[in-house]
Amino acid sequence: MEIGVMLDRLDRGAISGRLRSGRASRPHAQELPGAPRREPRPAAVLVPMFRYLEAWHLLFIRRTEYPGDHHSGQVAFPGGQWEPGDADAAATALREAREEIGLDPRRVVVLGELQPLHTVSNYLVTPVVGEIPWPLALRPDPSEVARVFGIPLAWLGDAAHRRVLTWPAPDHPEAREVVFYDEFDQELLWGVSAHITVDFLARLTRA
User: Fold this and answer.
1) Residue ranges per structural domain of the chain
2) Domain 3-158, what fold?
3) Tens digits of per-residue pLDDT, 132-150?
4) How many angstroms separate the CA atoms of 87 and 59, rounded?
5) Strand ranges (DSSP E) for 28-141?
6) CA 145, CA 6: separation in Å to the nearest integer?
7) pLDDT tens column, 75-133
8) Cβ(199)–Cβ(114) under 8 Å?
9) Could you tell me the pTM of the whole model?
């Protein structure tokens, strides 16, 4: 069966079950393998899924650009750093999604979590997968988010649309393998968010 057809046939229960059964034995993955062990700052992102035209989509944001901020202008999932008062990773992800795009946490059905990722910027990011209704009125904070958009899960699952490159350069001290997707609707998904996307797809397609 074509991977896109298989992905779109999954229902909420099947997705939640595959997230539970696919938990990795390692405590987390590292964006830069072999990097010195430092105590990372906990963070979480929400990986929002929605059904549109009988197909699954993932919701992304493009961050507002600021001079000198190398993360600004990038495609990402809504999320951020853990704050005192957040009970767990899901609480962090839902709070950040509310602050960044005006997503009411009550409209999110949390389906599970992916393996945390220790990033080069020293965050331990836990991706939290949640289903949201669609269409849905959102209120992006323009100081943080320039655009909110969706990409079909079937398109993301087609390996022909992505490649792994050594980035920033082979001789750079932080050289690492980074996933880059082709542009979709003039948006470029790469880096940590692409890594999370590929990990999610692996969970969904694992027999």
Assistant:
1) 3-158
2) Nucleoside Triphosphate Pyrophosphohydrolase (3.90.79)
3) 999 999 999 999 999 999 9
4) 24
5) 29-30, 41-52, 55-63, 75-76, 79-81, 109-113, 117-118, 123-131
6) 32
7) 999 999 999 999 999 999 999 999 999 999 999 999 999 999 999 999 999 999 999 99
8) yes
9) 0.93
